[in-house]
Each structure stands twice: as structure tokens, then as C-alpha cells.
Amino acid sequence: MEHFLRVEESGRIEALQEICVEFESRDDIAGLLILACDANGYRPDNLDLLLKGRTLPVIGAVFPELVSGNRKISRGTIVIGMKNRARIFSVAGLSDENVDYDELINRTVPEPGNARTALVFVDGFAGRIAALLEGLFNNFGLEVNYLGGGAGSLTLERKPCLLTNQGMLEDAAVIALLDLPSGVGVQHGWSSVAGPFKATECHQGTIASLDWQPAYEVYRQVVEARPGEVFDPDDFYATAQKYPFGLRKLDAEMVVRDPFQVGEKGEIICVGDVPLNSYLYVLTSDVPTLVDAASEALRLALAQCPGRGEDLPVLLFDCISRALFMGERFDDELNVFDQPGRTVVGALTIGEIANSGRSYLELFNKTAVVGVIDL
Amino acid sequence: MSPSKSELIQIYYEMAMAINDASELPQMLKQSLTTMVRKLNCCAGGIHLLDIEPDSLPGFYPAATIPRTSARIASYAEALAQLPQPPTRDSLDQFSERLPLSGSCLNGDRFYFFDLLPHGFLLLLKCETSLDPLIVKELLPIAARLTQAIGTCRQRQALQESIDHLSLVSDELRHYKESLEEMVETRTAALQQEMVERCLAEEELRQSEERHRLFLQQLPDPVAVFNRQCVPLYVNQEFSKTFGWAPEDFSTEECPLLCEESGEKGEWLQRQIASGKSLAGFEVSLQNRSGEILRVAVSGIPAPQIGDAESLQVLVLRDVTEQHRLENQLRHSQKMQAIGTLTGGIAHDFNNLLQAISGYTQLLQRRIESDSREGSFLDSISLSTERAADLVKQLLIASRRGESQLQPIDLNECVEQASKLLERTLVKMVRIDKHLSDESLIVNGDTGQLEQVLLNLANNAQAAMPKGGILTFSTEKVELDKTFCQGRDGLSPGTYAQLRVADSGLGMSPQVLDHIFEPFFTTKDIGEGTGLGLSSAYGIVRNHMGTIQCYSEPGKGTVFLIYLPLASESLTGQSSPAEYCPLPGGEETLLIVDDDVSVANFARSILEEGGYRIIQAATGEEALEIYARRREDISLVILDLGMPGMGGEKCLEALRAADPDVRVLIASGYATKDQAQRVIDLGAAAFVGKPYRVEIILKEVRLAIDSE
């Protein structure tokens, strides 16, 4: 894969341009996967010209940080030249309540063909990511392994963050259907410390009340009951990143929802949707558990590629808040993946997308999604 | 990782809430299934409902599957193979009795069928892990809940369909109502427009009818609209004026225009109206409301038939009674004029003949003793000649060639004088009644002639009353207007004396009435009348510038009405009768111009007897030639008027042109007073009528020679 991978850490558009031109000059490259750091400062006005000038199909996104090998990259771009031509399509209006994504996807890609893997990048702050994933699952089902995550900036500023041949997109999703098999492992390592709390008022990712009480108050009391935990009024996330919410499902880990902001009326805003009347648990974890979970995710992914998984590159989508929570010890997690002879690239995302094994497709938070695929 | 009991309850609760959340069946099924698949961590799921369409084969259809492509999942298809094939009611029932049903697929996936009867079943596919039997059991109430929700949704759906249908029907009804309202509105607008147009049309029609009504009303001729039964439906004012029936009379009484006098023409007219045929100037006698018979010229056209309306006939009934009367009068006048011309010509010739007979008789009487036998013969000849002259005179009067000596007389006195004479001469069975006006009725008349008229009328009345009766003379002053005078030749409007002579005799038929004033027309036996009585009466009255009319019907007597213009002043220039003088003579040379040789010779004989020298000429041209040669010798020219060639008048003019001092005596047996006056005006010295007596011609010759 080295021949098809370029990691440049300047974050300059010219550097990206050079890589793209180089890959486009090769006959064995059929598409471009571009993972960029938010710190690069890509905007439509300085990048769209480059994107629209591409002769190869482009799919990509801007993430808070990237992963290359066993280290994080805060500035720069990773470009992967995909050997197999991908069918790429985008979905605009990812917060639009009136769009039936099931029908939209069915109309856009009526037949998945031989697709085995779907790369899915979404605007991490979009309101209806779950509905999109539901539409993807309804249309493509279990025949496809889903792999991807939410793009965006840790500044929480909404801005164009998806890269396509049409330029940079905001509040959208971009999907590439690949005829390549893959293995996907999903694990997070969080466990509940309180709950359940019924989401009595919520819409998309915003929880207004838990058990008919202001959500933040309930959440604050739970967290601050923990030894040494006090919310900083100016830095909610500093504490909240250690105590995500969890949604229970049968025979699987809880689906984590990462609370990243408190609204003016005491509502808690999460990455990803929280169904009304669902029961939420307050979760917490520690670094070793999380590292173990990442290791388990890798194992699960490799298990789906028997015989040759060890040789395949790892495409990692790990949560930025997980990395923030783990701090410097996040390297321990990265070291789990970084083995001699194995290419590891990926992004630290705002929400991760995958189906766990042969089960339902979900948007996860604070989760390690490991894909094993020979792009 | 296995959930606790409370966590399971939360999962069940979330699934149950998802079921409750939806209202539309497809949405509810999808949402419920999604939640189940998601919460139970299944790899696929489906809700298959029993086809409830009564006409279709029994079987299940996938109402909701997750993913959409579940059928392509091998394990899912393998699970569906559990369904009975072919599906029948019985086999489906047997399958339903086996639910819930679970099993393993070849790849290790587990399938779970849950009973959603009577609607269908729920199929969940789990990969890698299986559902605990306890969980399966606890899912049954959720399946039941889903079953209930499906039933509710279907009921709601059916209700919604009913509502939709009702809504559709309502929409259609509303649409129809709106369409109807629009149509009503459009039609109303159209009707309003039609009403406006109709009002305008009616107004125009009303005005048109008013115009036509006024037009018909103001037509100078009577107009009536008849139906085919000859019943008048509408008449104009002139009709009412002429026939007496007003439009409103037709509702209460009939309008019997046809009468006995209409005869066959009336029947023919009736048929023409009934058949709707046109008429043009068809003359027929009709009666008016008073029973008066009118002569009517009928023109008519069928009125244009509108729709099923009754066929009508428009008739113009022009009253031509007066016109007819005038035409009759004109025709009578022309006839009388022609007769007058004829009789005047005959009288002229007779006069010439009588002039010769009478003249030579007189000459012979001068030479033969009157008491001799020859003398008595001559007396008889002379008497017959005078009677013949009288007859000719009457003929001339009848033909208005005779001269009247007009002078102011009182018509009443004239009637009195005639009455006295008649009282002695009429048979006693005839009583004479007189109703004379109190005031004198002065007319310019000839007493003798007027008395002659009265005698003639009285004689005829007596003849009409063989068994006696009443003869009535009435006089009065009347004013004759223009209408009365119209068509009566020479009569002009003014004040007249009316003399009415009526008898109570047998009366006369119209056929007789048409001829009574013609000379020689008589109803009397041969020898009893000359046929000149009424014709001479007619001539006398016309010479008096008057008119005579006769009204008579068989059995109703006869009335003669004589109108004579009242005199405003006495006639001037009336010469008194000439005094008798001894036969004068002379020695001058006279030129006698007459085409009748016998007359000329008789005149020559008389005048030569009186000492004159005579030159004769047969024509005017010859007279001019002679006079030109011997004008110094000729003292007087005796000139006849009625001659061939240039005639007497032109000859007179030529003589006067050649010699303004020439003396000319006109002698003519056929000249009116006007004609005589005209030749006097042309320069003639005097006029003497033929036949003239010897002493008259000698006297007139001498007077003419001696005149200044």
C-alpha cells in the first residue's frame, strides 16, 4: 500500500495538489481517498478549485486530527490512491427533517452491485446521521461492511468539511462503495456508572430532559457525585469527555453518545442522535480498558479476514474525544495497531460509523473502529 | 455483556414505544422493525403480512424488511423457506399454529418467527448470537402489541381510506359544487346578460310594435288582421272610423262585414282569407256596423307565421265608395258629354234642314193666300217645322247646346207657379205637398226652363204613381262643401238652393237609374214619351251651373235633388227682348259663307227678297279670296261657324286681320253661348242662331250693316 499512500504534514494545498497530480498520472490508481487535518485551513475558496479539477473520483473529509502509524498528525493530509474504482455519491441536507434518506439512497444507488465495503464520511455535527445510516443499512444491508466517521472541527464551528469532486460540502455525507472485502471491528471499552435515565425530551442529538428533569442537572449531579469531579462552567467538555452516555442494545456494547456542549436551557448536545424515550446510562472508563477495547476491535476486524488479515492495511477511525480523554496515553492505543509490516492510517473523528460484525449499523462515539482493507 | 433484567425491560419498552409512536402502517412497521433490529442487534428483520385481498391467492408479502434487500440474504431466504408452499388457507393456518418458531440456518444464523396473526408474522434474523428463549418468550407481548398496532393501523388505514374516499368524494362533490356554482354563476351571468338583451330586445320589440301599431293606426286606410276563420283580431283607427267597430268590440260582438250585397265576391274573399292567399285591390261590397253598404278594395297578405302561432292575414280595406261614386259620376258625365256631342251634331244638321224647310215655307206663305188649300198645307208644314225645331231645341238643351235666358228669379215662386199648373194637369190621385223655405232663394235662372224641369219631373212622378201618391216639392238653402262638389262637373263649393222633388211611387232599379238622364231613354211605352224629359232637365240644370241627382229604390219612391247656386247679384248685360220691326231690307252687297248649299240658298232668297245683292262662298278660304277681291263692294259677311276647312272662327280672324272694319254676322245652328260670346269678342257684329226666321235674319243683317 505504500505505493498508493502519501502522508504530507505541511497541510499546504500545493502539496496536496502535487500528490493528486502524481496519483492521477498513474494508471493503477482509480480513486483518491483524502484525509485532511482541520488545522490545514481548507476552505471551499481555496480548495474547491483543486477538488473540482480532479480527474479521479475523490472521497475525503477534514478531521480534527489524523493517524499515521502510531502517531497523531495535527496538520497535514493523507492521500490514498485507491486501486479499485469506487462509486462515490453524496447526500446533501443531512439535518433536513423532510428528507427520506432511505428513498434518496435507493434513488441514487438503486443497486449496490458487488459492493462489499462502504466508506462513509458525514458532517459530524449534522442532525440526522442516524437516519442516513438507517437508510444505508436498509438499502445495502449486511452485504456491505460500513466504515467511516464524522468530520469537522474541535472548535465546534460548523463549516464545509467533506471533500468531493464537487468541492467541499457542509451538512452532508459522502459515501464510496467499494468492491473490496473488508474486516471491521468495533469496540469502545466504556461501561455504565449510573442510570438508566429516560430521555423524556430530546430531538436528534439534543437531550432536553432526563426523567423529566433538565438533562444537564441530572447529568451534572451524576458526574459531580463521582469523586473529584466538578464541572468547570467554562469548560463543560473537560469533564464530560470522561462521562459519555450509553444506549443499551442486546448482545452488544452500549452505543456511546458523547456530550460535548451544554445549551442555554440546560440541554445537553451529543454527537449523534438520541432516540426519544430511550434509556441512557452514564458511562466512564479508564485508559487500559480503552486500549484493551481497541485491541479487541482490531482482533474482530482481522477475524473477518481470515488468512491474510495480518498483511492488510488498517484504516482506523478513532474518536477524537477518546484521544482527548486518553491524552498522551492514546499512543498506547495506537501502538496496538502499529505492527511491523502493517500500514496504519486513519482519522480521529467526531463520531464513528461501522457495523459491529454482522449486526446493525450504528454511529458510535468514543469508539475505536478498525477497518482492515486493501484499498 | 448480557443485559440485566431491567435493561431488557428497557429494551422492550423502547421497542414498545416505537410501536406506539407510529400511526401510518408502513411507517409504523418500518419504525418498529428498525427499533427491534437495532435494539435486538439483529442483522435483518421483516414483517410479512397476510394478503387480505379476497380475490388474490393466499400468501404473505413483505410489508417491511430491514434491510430492503433482505431477500438476498441467504439465511433470510432460508428462513422464509419455512413457509408452506404452495400457500393455502389450511397450510397457512397450520403454519400459524406452529408460531413462534425459531431455527438455525446453514451459516449458523438464527431465525425467529413471531405470530402477528391474523395479520402475518415477524421474522428476525440474528447472526453470530441467538436470542435467549426467555427473551423470545418475552418478545411475544411485544409481537402481540405489534399485532394490535397493525390492526389499529389497518383500521385507521381503512378509516383513513374511507375518510380519503369521503374526502375524495367530498372533493369531487366540492368540485362539482364549485363547477355547478361556476356554471350557475356563468349561467346566471349569461341569463342576466340574456335578460338585459331580452329586455333590450323586448323594448326594441315594444318600440317596434308601437311603431308598427302607430304606423298601422295612422295608415289612411282601414287595416285589419284576420285569422283563418275570418275573425278580426286587430283593427286600426281608420277601420274603426270606416266600419264602426273598435278593437274592444270584438270581444263582445261579431264583425259581420260580409252582407247580402257582398254576394259571390264575399264568399270568394272569405275563401282567400281562409287559405291565406294574397289579395290585391279586390273590390267587394261590405257593410259597416250601421249596415251601410260600402264599396271596399281589399288587399291582403298573409302575416309571416312565427312558430306555432296562428296563421293571420293582414287586410287593407280601402273604402272606395266615394271613389266609385265619383268614377260613376265621371263616367256618367263623360257619357252625357258624348251624348251631348252626338245630339248637338244631329241637332245642327236638323237645324240646317229645318232652316231650309222653314225658310222656303215662309217664302211660299208670302206668295200664296193663307186661306187657300195650298196655304193650309203650308201652315201644316210650318207647324210641323216649328214642332221639329222645338224637338231640336230640347235636344240642344239636353246636350247643353241650348241657350238659357238667365236672370235672378226666386226659386220658391218658380215652384209655386209650377205647382199651380200641375194641380190642374196632374191626376187627382196625386197629391202635391210643398215644403218651401221661408226665405227667398234667388238663383240666376230661366223661369221657363226651370218650370219645364219641374213639369218633366212631375210627369215622371205621376207615371211612377199609377195608383196615386204624394209628390213633394221642398226647397231650402244649403251649403255644399268641397267633398260634395268633387266629381260633379262644374260644381264649386258654396251656397246653393236645394230643390227636392220626391214621389212615393214605384221607384227605380239601379240599372234604370244609370240611364235616366240619357236622351231618348224611357221606360214608358212607345208613343208615351220622347225620352227627352229627364235629359232636358239635366241639361237645363247644368246650364244653370247646378246639378241634379236622383235617389231611388224599387218600392221606395224616387227623390230628385236639384242644387242651383244662389245668386249674389243680378246678371248684368241682359238684353231685353228685341222689339218687333217691319222687315227691313237694303241694297248693299252681302257675302254669305256656308257650306250647306240649301241654307245658303235660303238665305240668299230671303236677303235678295229684301233687296240685297248676294255673293256666296262655300268655305272660309273661298270667302277670304272673294273678300280680298271685292272688299269695297261687300258691306257684310254672313258667316257660318261649322264648316270644313279653316272653319268659321279662323275665317273671321283672317277677315278681321285683312280688314279690321269688316262687318261680319255669325249665323250658326250649333253654338253655345260661350262660343257666341267668343266670336263677338273676335269682332263679329252679331250672332244669329239657326234656324232663324226671315224677319230675324233681315233685322239682324240690317242692324249689323248699320251698326257703328
Q: Keyphrases for this structure?
A:
heterodimer; A: 375 residues; alpha+beta; six-stranded mixed sheet; globular; B: 708 residues; Beta-Lactamase; Helix Hairpins; 5 domains; five-stranded antiparallel sheet; 22 strands; rod-shaped
Set out the fold topology.
The complex is a heterodimer of chains A (375) and B (708).
Chain A: E1 5-8, H1 13-24, E2 31-37, H2 44-52, E3 58-63, E4 65-68, E5 71-73, E6 77-82, E7 87-92, H3 101-108, E8 117-123, H4 129-140, E9 145-151, E10 162-164, E11 167-169, E12 172-178, E13 183-187, E14 191-203, E15 206-210, E16 213-214, H5 215-224, H6 236-240, E17 245-247, E18 255-262, E19 268-271, E20 279-284, H7 287-303, E21 314-319, H8 320-326, H9 330-337, E22 344-349, E23 352-355, E24 361-364, E25 368-372
Parallel strand pairs in A: 2-3, 8-9, 21-22
Antiparallel strand pairs in A: 1-6, 2-6, 3-10, 4-5, 4-22, 7-12, 8-12, 9-23, 10-11, 13-25, 14-15, 14-20, 15-16, 15-19, 17-18, 17-20, 18-19, 21-25, 23-24
Helix pairs in contact in A: 3-4, 7-9
Chain B: H1 5-21, H2 25-39, E1 44-50, E2 60-66, H3 74-80, H4 89-97, E3 101-104, E4 110-115, E5 120-126, H5 133-218, E6 223-227, E7 232-235, H6 237-243, H7 263-275, E8 279-287, E9 293-302, E10 312-319, H8 321-367, H9 373-398, E11 407-410, H10 411-425, E12 430-435, E13 442-445, H11 447-464, E14 469-480, H12 482-485, E15 494-503, H13 510-513, H14 533-543, E16 547-552, E17 558-565, E18 589-593, H15 597-609, E19 613-617, H16 620-630, E20 634-639, H17 647-658, E21 664-668, H18 673-681, E22 686-689, H19 694-706
Parallel strand pairs in B: 12-14, 18-19, 18-20, 20-21, 21-22
Antiparallel strand pairs in B: 1-2, 1-5, 3-4, 4-5, 6-7, 6-10, 8-9, 9-10, 11-13, 14-15, 15-17, 16-17
Helix pairs in contact in B: 1-2, 1-5, 2-5, 8-9, 8-15, 9-14, 10-11, 11-14, 16-17
